[in-house]
Amino acid sequence: MISGVQMFWSEFMGTALMMAIAFMVAASRSLPKTGAYRADWINASLGWGLAVYVGVYAGWRTGGHLNPAVTLARVVGHWIDPQATLNGLAMGKGGIPVTLANVAIFISAQFLGAFFGTCLGYLGTRKHFELPTDTDTKLMVFCTKPAIRSNFWNLASEAIGTAILVTWVFLNGGTPTQVGPLGVALVITVLVMALGGVSGAAMNPARDFSSRLAYCLLPMSGKKDADWSYA
């Protein structure tokens, strides 16, 4: 049986690695003086997809949720089928039972891991944040921003993207070929291609909230407000 500490560490490490890599991809394509400055949208989409690939592998012991939406979807799955576990394995074969305590461990690890990973990514690209850069650009390295601000339609975009992601998570494992981390990486890649330029394609409360909080707390010149009204 996996312990609470092991559960926390698995989700924390996976989410932190995902966010650190994705943050550095975003910084490299957005900030002047980097070799990847103004790289196209495929760069961002593949960067996010492969960052999730790394994170899911790192968090394999817990199923690599990295996302409170995925964890809560597993809870709903348990309501439908009481035999369902948090990590998809059968009880007695490494399955993690769906309990309030375990769900709290997963979600807290995801939020804290996302914060830590964002800070790590920031340290990796720190010098470029010291250069004069548009304040909106700096903020968008950390968190999402819509192309057209419309609360209802931005919400619809994020809900549709998250629903597609969660549906794939539910179906994965029920097919003869279980593609695992590579499969979810491709799903994230195509969803960022589809909705990243529309609503930001966060699809993950920890990814957006924790990185937005890090933006507020980290030392940085030319910083604007964190646009919590969109969060």
From TrEMBL:
Record's bilayer topology term: Multi-pass membrane protein
Keyword Transmembrane helix: yes
The name this protein goes by in its record: Transporter, putative Glycerol facilitator
SUPFAM superfamilies membership: Aquaporin-like (SSF81338)
Keywords for the protein's UniProt record, in alphabetical order: Membrane, Transmembrane, Transmembrane helix, Transport
Transmembrane domains' residue ranges: 12-29, 41-60, 100-123, 152-171, 183-203
UniProt lineage: Bacteria, Bacillati, Actinomycetota, Actinomycetes, Bifidobacteriales
Single GO MF annotation: glycerol channel activity
Location of this chain's protein in the cell: Membrane
Main location group: membrane
Organism of provenance: Bifidobacterium mellis
Family classification: Belongs to the MIP/aquaporin (TC 1.A.8) family.
Pfam families: MIP (PF00230)
One term under GO cellular component: plasma membrane
